[in-house]
Amino acid sequence: MDFSEEQITRYSRHILLPEVGGKGQQKIARAKVLIIGAGGLGSPAGLYLAAAGVGTLGFIDHDTVDRSNLQRQVLHHTPDLGRAKVTSAKEKIGLLNPDVTVETHQDRLHAGNALEYIAPYDVVIDGVDTFPAKFLINDACYLANTPLVHGGILRFEGRVFSILPGRSACYRCVFTQPPPAGLVPSCQEAGIIGVVAGVIGTIQATEALKLILGIGNPLTDRILDFDARHTAFRERRIRRNPKCPLCGARPTITELVDHEQDTCQLRQPGAVGVS
Hints:
single chain; Rossmann fold; about 35% helix
């Protein structure tokens, strides 16, 4: 594809990079990224991927904009209260970069539609806020053979890692199954310092671009934890679990199922996630 003079100017700082250049920018322009959850994580991820020139951004979210979202969900502004999040997201992305095609899906992801939504995309970004949804996304991406960038935030902490199906540890290699219903408090009870969403969502966008370009070392087989109180990052190595029920030697999960429990994540040993 040929870029116009306006596009060459827009993406000039990318094109100057030897690791990107014109060919890399063309890869970005041809890429399709699905962001599941147009909230705290999906907002910064979406904005930076749009600014980078990702050709197609998909947003799936069933919710509408609430006043309590505005503290961290930077795609949405005060006049958007009550509007569908995907509609608000499409509008802001269009204002930032008209080159980007935005596909909106005002729907709740479930076992019956997950593969259909995920299959057309090259990379998926997990921006959801419940354990059941995170397990569903992980399972669907594995079955669709689609790279996934996981993210989770809670209070002053955040976490991100990338998953290449069949080649790196998946979410179930680390966290076997969702916690029992009622074990964790709600979003309103847990709380989140808004800027942590920006930090983690931006790292998720970085991971997506690296996967699209095929450069650097993605956050596979390692989890990056962030503690805002101490401005500290910690990396932990993880490995594929040969007994993983999804990607192990003898998988027991061969189709998608919906788990009960629709509350925001607090603590499964080592897990965070509120959007």
